[in-house]
Design brief:
Elements: E1 3-8, E2 17-22, E3 24-30, E4 35-41, E5 45-50, E6 53-57, H1 61-76, E7 81-86, H2 91-97, E8 104-109, H3 112-121, H4 123-126, E9 135-139, H5 142-147, E10 153-159, E11 165-167, E12 170-172, H6 181-189, E13 191-200, H7 208-218, E14 224-231, E15 239-246, H8 256-266, H9 275-280, H10 286-294
Parallel strand pairs: 7-8, 7-10, 8-9, 10-13
Antiparallel strand pairs: 1-2, 3-4, 4-5, 5-6, 11-12, 13-15, 14-15
Bound molecules: 1-{4-[(3-aminopropyl)amino]butyl}guanidine.
């Protein structure tokens, strides 16, 4: 019998369904927070799904993780201390640790079981990032962690799951708090001058509020708010978007030669990121601009 993982649209009353074949199931379980599955697929390799939603796959995780991390780090140029909220699969952590400037990365992940599953089944995604002496893993609710955090970071990445839906433009579900003004204010409090925050905002063609709400909320905290895009093959609906908050507009306008120099100096071995892609990713098609300007509609 063939089994499939099925992700169903939540924002248009079940208008679409994405099915990926589970050729071999490696792990299936329920944690305190969500269902967790790791399976093999002929196209994607090993796939991590949380509550039936694809989070990362072996064969296309580089689209997501390289863009989540290398764009802000090479724009900044001297990140020493980084904070990742979520990111339990370890992919973003691994990319962050590739930068020689990085001295310490704190990761606040709510679900210890995701980390355990990643260590056991997703080593091609996390490598040995969890064992790196620069890594401090905190199993905690990101909101609570930041409320009490006395550290200061140069880079904050919010690598969370998507909200489960939007009611009146307001995100719903366990990760909803990670898109709120209060949460961004706490991020900001824990950021050094010139630091940058990046947050994943899913696929706006299917989840308009998933982009417009955080963009609006980020603008209450940061003077320079923007977003950039990447099409992740295993996510349905076209471009996904990372939103960006900083008080230094210069970070978004680093000349290509400078980015290329930094890229060479960091000696990153990338499969998606290039300095040209970095710059081009901030160019937005009209429909994304409209979502940001007009809201979810
Ligand atoms: N977190 C964001 C996953 C977004 C999934 N959305 C979707 N499939 N529509 C990914 C975690 C990777 N570290």
């Amino acid at each position: 019998m063939t089994s499939w993982i099925e992700e169903t649209d939540k924002t248009h009353g079940g208008a679409w369904q994405l099915r990926i074949k589970m050729d071999r199931i490696l792990y299936q379980g329920e944690s305190e927070f969500q269902s967790i599955a790791v399976f093999e697929n002929r196209l994607y390799g090993r796939v991590l799904a949380l509550d039936n939603i694809v989070q990362a796959t072996e064969n296309d995780e580089f689209f997501y993780h390289e863009m989540a991390v290398h764009v802000p780090l090479l724009a900044h140029g001297a990140v020493k201390r980084a904070l990742i909220i979520g990111g339990g699969d370890g992919g973003a952590l691994e990319e962050t640790l590739r930068h020689p400037s990085v001295e310490a990365v704190t990761m606040a992940e709510i679900d210890a079981q995701v980390v355990a599953v990643a260590k056991q089944h997703l080593r091609t995604i996390c490598g040995t990032a969890f064992e790196d002496p620069r890594t401090e893993l905190v199993i905690a609710d990101g909101v609570e962690y930041l409320e009490h955090c006395a550290e200061r970071f140069d880079f904050v990445l919010i690598d969370s799951t998507d909200p489960t839906g939007f009611t009146g433009g307001q995100p719903q579900g366990p990760s909803a708090v990670l898109f709120s003004v209060e949460f961004y204010a706490n991020c900001k409090r824990c950021m050094n001058p010139g630091a940058v925050l990046v947050t994943q905002n899913a696929v706006p063609f299917t989840d308009r509020a998933g982009l417009s709400t955080p963009m609006r909320n980020l603008a209450t905290q940061f003077t320079d708010v923007a977003c950039y895009r990447v099409a992740v093959p295993s996510f349905y609906g076209g471009d996904m978007v990372f939103s960006w908050g900083s008080d230094d507009p210069g970070l978004r306008h680093v000349p290509l030669e400078r980015l290329s120099e930094r890229f060479r100096a960091a000696a990153l071995d990338t499969r998606y990121y290039t300095p040209e892609i970095h710059q081009g990713a901030f160019a937005l098609p009209g429909y994304l601009r409209a979502i940001i300007e007009e809201g979810a509609g």
